[in-house]
Amino acid sequence: MHDLIEDMGRQIDQQESPKELGKRRRLLLPKDIIHVLKHNTGTNRIEIISLDLSISEKEETLEWNANAFKRMKNLKILIIRNGKFSKGPNYFPESLSVLEWHGYPSNCLSSNFLPNKLVFCKLTDGNFASFGFHGSLKAKGCRKLMSFPPLNLPTLESLKLSYCSNLKKFPEILGKMGNVREEWRWVKSEKCEDNIGSMVSSKVDWFLTLSCNFDDHFFSSGFMQLAQVRNLFLWKNNFKFLPECIKEFHNLHTLDVSHCKHLQEIRGIPPKLEHFKAINCISLSSSSSSMLLNKQLHEARKTAFWFPGTSIPEWFDHQSSGPSCSFWFRNKFPAKVLSLLIAPVGDELHFIKPMVFIDGKVLESKFFCSKDIERMFELDHTFLFDLQGLPVYGNLFELPLEKEWKHVEVTYEGVIKTSIIKATGIHVFKEENSIMEDIRFDDPYNNKKVDKDLNGSQSQNHSLLQSIGLFTTYNFFLGIFLFVFLLLFFYFIY
């Protein structure tokens, strides 16, 4: 019965375009498929190709045009279960949802293939060992992709499978892949840590997991094999602590454990860590938050830290309960200025950057959010960062040297609702050779004005006293003159 239905389907396809094979919607007969692939007569009408050669035919090498799929803009299903092709394809259409090719004839996929609609991919029995010159496998954003072929790619440099939210498991690793420089994962599996050891090498730059349900056992099942990564993302996992051994991650530049709601304790900080996020880690202990506010940590590096907390460290120079903090400098802009914000801002926090004013003139940030932030967390979060890392128009640290005092204001007013801001703070790093007389947290011009006013008042008082003195002396002599005049007047009259 099944064979009868297939025969009926083939007859319908043949009747659809009996002479022009490339205009049929489905190609199922081996001779028709070989003709179209050899002579490059395909069109955008073809949606399905399914090739299954006989035992005798599959031993013959099939000569074909490697650009044959380029005209098939609407090809959705490509199945080649056997066949010895002379070369691999130069092109795959983006419309493909099913790609199955037994004995794939090339060691690379075409570099222009964007598998956005791919649901199923199976490439077996072939020398699938490298990805050409580009050294990259990208299936980013393929939300329909549920499975991926086994990988044996020693020259692979970049593997990106992020946002493949329906991928049931990470691809099977058949050999060492020591050249991988990037690895992005988006896996929802309770056992995906089993593949970490096969994948990671000393050259891996990025390692990302999301919703993998990692618990504390993750740190004893190959975690140290990640010790050379520069960027480590462990979002939405279930572990309760970051182990002390993370201090041995000497190359780690970025660590993100956001939305790990069970995370309570951070037992170590990598020596070169600059960017750290623990957004919405609602169980984080106060002692861990205090450790993240270590003065030496932030003065030694160009840091940007986000984590739950409401404390401004005592070593900060100036703090305010409002949206702004400011200071005055002269001669040279300070080498390091730390800014701090406390607010219950959500995931948008890393897009929020303050505006910086110098003597009332704004240096606009390239990335700041002027719209109202709708999503907020229950907990207040601390955002502590080095002002030198702020992407502003103009370089704060190349301002011309001037002896006059300049006023610097760092403000979130107009960036986020001021009503949600709990506190802001400023800290200026004191270099060994710097002169702190060139940094002030009160208005030096107001003090000068007071001094001037005091001096003016003293001068006025002195003048007044002089006037009073002159007036008193004048009255004294006038009195004597009148007295003598009256004596003489009465003497001559009487």
TrEMBL record:
User: What keywords would UniProt list here?
Assistant: Membrane, Transmembrane, Transmembrane helix
A Gene Ontology biological process noted in the UniProt record is:
defense response
Q: Does the keyword Membrane apply?
A: yes
Give the source's domain of life in one word.
Answer: Eukaryota
Answer yes or no on keyword Isomerase: no
Q: Where do the TM regions start and end?
A: 474-493
Q: What is this protein called?
A: Uncharacterized protein
